[in-house]
Design a protein that fits this description.
CATH architecture of the largest domain: 3-Layer(aba) Sandwich
Largest sheet: 9 strands, mixed
Radius of gyration: 20 Å
Shape: elongated
Strand order of the largest sheet: 1-2-6-5-4-3-7-8-9
Number of helices: 11
Structural class: alpha/beta
Number of domains: 2
Strand content: 15-25%
Order of helices and strands: EEEHEHEHEHEHEHEHHHHHEE
Oligomer: single chain
CATH class of the largest domain: Alpha Beta
Helix content: 25-40%
């Protein structure tokens, strides 16, 4: 594959919103092409130690943005960052990576994502960094690059984060830059839900569907009712079992018992179905929407 050149951007070529923050980078290097100023930039970050719930939530939410003028910004890190980039590519969205290293393939971090970085570039996305092209990642370079992700984006979406994590540094910076912060509620039994739940207490916007996300970004959405076949076409076998059990609404405890799933699996399946808008819990009963 032909290696795209690494170029230094002029200050007037920086992403528009990045020029507005109080500590913009002095230099910015780029491979590929940044989205135009009309494109909404959504920073999506989360835990490296993600759960299946976090992975599915990230994939489902980004897939639902297909066809909208939105680009996904993330950090190329292992975990939710990589899932966000891959989900954007699969949904036909542009994506921008901001690694904690220089952009030369010999130092690009992490090495495991060299192939992903090439896919981003071949899909007309971009890699950007304030570090010199041969700069090797350090402990301090990751929180430093987080301000670029938060600063260039219209909003930041947090998907799973422990209380002491770089992910929450990004959300804090987004707040300081007067950007919107969104987050996905998670299981009360998971340590990776501690960060999102803290953000919700601080006023972050809860996101439970792609529709929530689009509306929070200012897009108009159509409320087209789907047929049952369309509604459940992407359901896993576990989700379809829940659908069958809920032909008659029942309490969560009864549902957990009749599903035959262990508690952890059942909570993950139900949480994902709530995100998809397939079920709702009202008056002590879980029911289909």
């Amino acid at each position: 594959m032909t290696q795209l050149p690494i170029k230094e951007l002029l200050v007037n070529e920086f992403p528009v919103l990045l020029k507005e923050i109080n500590d913009p980078p002095e230099k910015l290097y780029i491979q590929g092409t940044l989205p135009g100023p009309e494109t909404k930039l959504l920073c999506v970050v989360g835990s490296r130690k993600y759960t299946n719930y976090g992975k599915e939530a990230c994939e489902k939410l980004i897939t639902g943005l297909r066809g909208y003028d939105i680009a996904i910004v993330s950090g190329l890190a292992l975990g939710i960052d990589s899932i966000a980039h891959k989900s954007a590519l699969e949904a036909g969205l542009k994506t921008v990576s901001v690694p904690g290293s220089g952009l030369d393939p010999r130092v690009l971090y992490p090495k495991n994502n060299i192939q992903l970085s090439q896919k981003i570039l071949s899909s007309r996305g971009a890699l950007i960094s304030e570090f010199d092209p041969m700069f090797k990642a350090t402990i301090w370079s990751f929180p430093q690059r987080n301000r670029i992700m938060a600063g260039m984006s219209h909003a930041t979406l947090i998907i799973e984060a422990e209380l002491k994590s770089g992910t929450l540094i990004t959300s804090k910076l987004a707040t300081e830059y007067n950007r919107d912060v969104f987050t996905v509620p998670g299981s009360i039994f998971s340590p990776t839900s501690a960060g999102p739940h803290m953000l919700l207490r601080l006023g972050a916007t809860p996101i439970t569907s792609s529709k929530d996300l689009l509306e929070a970004l200012g897009f108009k959405t159509e409320n087209n009712e789907k047929t049952s076949a369309e509604k459940y076409v992407d359901c896993s076998p576990e989700e379809m079992k829940i659908v069958e059990l809920l032909l008659n609404p029942m309490s969560r405890d009864t549902l957990l018992s009749e599903s035959g799933f262990d508690i952890s699996q059942a909570n993950a399946v139900l949480s994902m179905m709530e995100i998809k808008g397939l079920i709702v819990e009202r008056m002590g009963e879980v029911r289909l929407t």
